[in-house]
Here is the input.
Amino acid sequence: MDKPLPQGISPATFAAAIAELQTVVGAEYVFTDDRAHLRSYRDAYSTLDDSNFAPSAAVAPKTVEEVQGVLAVARTHQLPVWTISTGKNFAYGGPAPRKPGYVVLDLKRMNRIIEVNEKHGYAVVEPGVSYQDLYNYLQEKGIKLWIDCAAPAWGGIVGNTSDHGAGYTPYGDHLLMQCGMEVILADGTVVETGMGGVPNSKTSSLYKYGIGPWVDGLFTQSNFGVITKMGIWLMHEPPGYMPFMVTLPREEDLELITDLVLPLKLNMVIANGALTADLLWESAMSVTKRQYYTGKGPVPDSIRRKIASDLKLGMWNFYAALYGPQPIMDNNWKIVEATLRQIPGAKIYFDADRKGDPGWDYRAKLMRGIPNMTEFSLLNWVGGGGHINFSPISAADGKDSMKQFHMIRDRAHEYNFDYIGEFLIGWRDQHHIFMLMFDRLSDDEKQRAHELFGVLINDAAKLGYGEYRTHLSFMDQIADTYNYNDRALWRMHETLKDALDPDGILSPGKMGIWPERMRGQQS
Amino acid sequence: MLTRRAFLKSTVAASAIAGSTGLAALQSKRLESHDIPTLVFADENNLQATLFANTWNGSAPLPSATARDVAGQMGEIDNFCRTHPDGIVFGLTRDSDFFVLEHTAAQRGFSVHYRATHDFRGAALVHDIDAPHAVALPLSTSLQQARAAWPQMLASALPLIAQAQGTLTRAKTTVAATYNRADSGYLVSWMLKANSTG
Here is the structure.
């Protein structure tokens, strides 16, 4: 297949831009060979042909000065650059750009852990630092701080945080735990946000807001600047840690557990990113679909009951943990246990009961900030498994969660997919993740998955639900659902975009935010 | 997952597959005698993968790494690819583990030289191969003829796959087989080489 060029860029202009990029970063860090290098920048889980998101080149700068140089070249030639950190945001597009022909601005070489402060519990990292990298560093240095990681260990801290990712310890709201950023604007200006606006600041990683508008959020899930440094708070290792799991026998128990746990979350008796995962999500850690069911379509209820029985799982499975000194954990456990015992048939498990069960092991690790890759095991549920995630927010309310679950489950079954999902309880909400899993080697399944996803966006919007994160293919459609007052929010985004990036070079189309010169042309 | 470092001895391995009708056309090819650093992965929880691994290691068990969490192997493949740009990585693993290992190796300039899925569907086993043109069809035939001994046959064929050139060609074959539901039923065999080594 011919490699795509950026829209509106001639081969001669592209060649000139590439030569200039090579001067900025060195020829060995500009990648143009499709087979040798650029295939690794494609979306392995695309429901469309991945040529829709194929880059024309990739460039990997090492320093702020090199990033500035890359952006200068991009401005000169109106070259669209798509920024990635570690590029592992699979299910949402991974390292791939929004449209074919973009140049990927790969920040993997900016991988310094700049500072770790054990006393105040924070780290300052560059975009190429993964959760595994920071964890290894803390272990090697004997620093008694925990990270809060996304499920896959290779995820980038800056990338995940700026995509509003979440985790499973009490520090699970990653953006809340972010403090201070260094951002390079499209014109090359370097901005330090928050207290970092004071030269030689001693508090840039201690207090988020500085003075004046708090702008950090503008650089998340957006294309208003390139984040080159980020502060992140880290939890002090607690004196005690007690993970637990509750299996819930009936589908309707989702309503019960949600309503019972909410007061515990609001009062921080349960402080961590607790979650309720459905049967198949947990099962897929240990078994594959064909080991139980080789028919077409979703697993029948009778088979689901057999899986649950064999693997000692519930139709829903709640995971949470207690932290702190033993007397506090003992006291809080009395409250938690009394709450959970109100659910008929609920069974409570601890580490001694479930150790060796892959589903338990990886959750217990995540809830104490130990990165791992076990969640990828899910993808063996179907042969050739790929997935995109449909991620609406629901209220932390039993009836609301059930309504959203039924809506998604019923549509998934209509399109012959299993419902595989979890509800991650936030401060007042639930992050509902529906893992739409398909055989990535099957064109039929990819097409059905793509159609289903588009239908779900519309279904959710009609009921007043919006998504918090999404795949490249659906950014425009979801942006259009945020259309209160004639798209006032997105019109404001576009105004900011035009002011901060008048040449429209930074990640055009990210989250449906297009530069003026490309508005109305997207497909 | 089981891993092992070894050296692929192309001449020794060639004789092991001499009797395979499907690859008879390649017997006469003169192979250079040299040692190629290799890193092998096999899913310890899967019977076929264990048979594959044992073909490389005789009957001695391979050292076992952390089950189900491929994170334990990411450092190993990264280090191998960094220090052995002339090396080969191959495996018979779960698809999810291949995905992670492939993407990890890609950062060191390694890409897919060969890949196949081995998919139990009802009473049949489907081998769906993407291999260098010179070996795709013979390999497909050999897998079909090997029937239940396909993991061992595949392990023996790896030296020839490693040395084959050309663009990837697809070949598919279906064999009557009994699926043991204790196994996952879907494996991927794969080989990664540095981009410049063809």
